């Protein structure tokens, strides 16, 4: 497979990540990660998880009742060998909490910092850290 084909597969992978999260398709979201994915959510009020089994319950607990819209832009992907890559994605997200929640709305800007590993299933996210540049928060 060519580097250009690998690049497109990684971009499609990230598109699925955003779509599965926003449509709350949790079982499908799990398929975009390696089983041993390391996700740093310290800046988002969580910790560091070292598996899909740890990460999904955290994520579901945070946003299962929240309407979310995530956009990823301007990917910077670098290949570190045949089966390893790293990437940075500019991102923007909006979250709306249900009535009665202490938060009403968040509009955020930042970057996803990720690594990818080629597996038998194709390219998967193996590490992910979200850093934010700015947040607009509206409290209820």
What is the highest CATH level, the class? Alpha Beta
Unreliable stretches covering 5 or more consecutive residues = none
Give the fraction of residues assigned to helices. Answer: 25-40%
In DSSP terms, counting alpha (H) and pi (I) runs of 4 or more, how many helices?
A: 3
The biggest beta sheet reads:
6 strands, mixed
Record field, number of beta strands = 6
Cα-atom radius of gyration: 15 Å
Mean of all residue-level pLDDT scores: 97
User: Distance between termini?
Assistant: 51 Å
* Spatial strand sequence of the major β-sheet: 2-1-6-5-4-3
Quickly give the CATH architecture. Roll
CATH-defined topology: Nuclear Transport Factor 2, Chain: A
The global form is: globular
| Count of the domains | 1
Class by SSE composition: alpha+beta
Pfam families: SnoaL_4 (PF13577)
InterPro entries: NTF2-like_dom_sf (IPR032710), SnoaL-like (IPR037401)
If you had to describe this structure to a student in words, what would you say it looks like?
Pfam families: SnoaL_4. Residues 3-129 form the SnoaL-like domain. The chain has 140 residues and is of the alpha+beta class. The chain has one domain: Roll (Nuclear Transport Factor 2, Chain: A), CATH 3.10.450.50. Helix content is 26%, strand content 51%. The chain contains three helices and six strands, in the order ααββαββββ. It has helices at 3-22, 26-30, 52-63, and strands at 33-40, 48-49, 67-79, 84-96, 103-119, 122-139. The protein has a six-stranded mixed beta sheet with strand order 2-1-6-5-4-3. It is globular and about 50 Å long. The mean pLDDT is 97.
């Amino acid at each position: 497979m060519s580097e250009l084909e690998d690049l497109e597969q990684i971009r499609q992978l990230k598109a699925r990540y955003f779509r599965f999260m926003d449509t709350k398709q949790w079982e499908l979201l799990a398929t975009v990660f390696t089983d041993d994915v390391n996700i740093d959510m310290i800046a988002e009020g969580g910790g560091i998880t070292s598996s899909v089994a740890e990460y999904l319950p955290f994520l579901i607990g945070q946003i299962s009742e929240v309407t979310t819209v995530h956009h990823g832009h301007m990917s910077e992907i670098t290949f570190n060998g045949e089966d390893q890559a790293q990437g940075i994605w500019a991102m923007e997200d909006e979250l709306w909490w249900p009535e009665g929640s202490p938060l009403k709305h968040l509009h955020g800007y930042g970057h996803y910092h990720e690594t990818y590993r080629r597996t038998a299933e194709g390219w998967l996210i193996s590490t992910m850290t979200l850093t934010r540049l700015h947040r607009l928060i509206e409290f209820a």
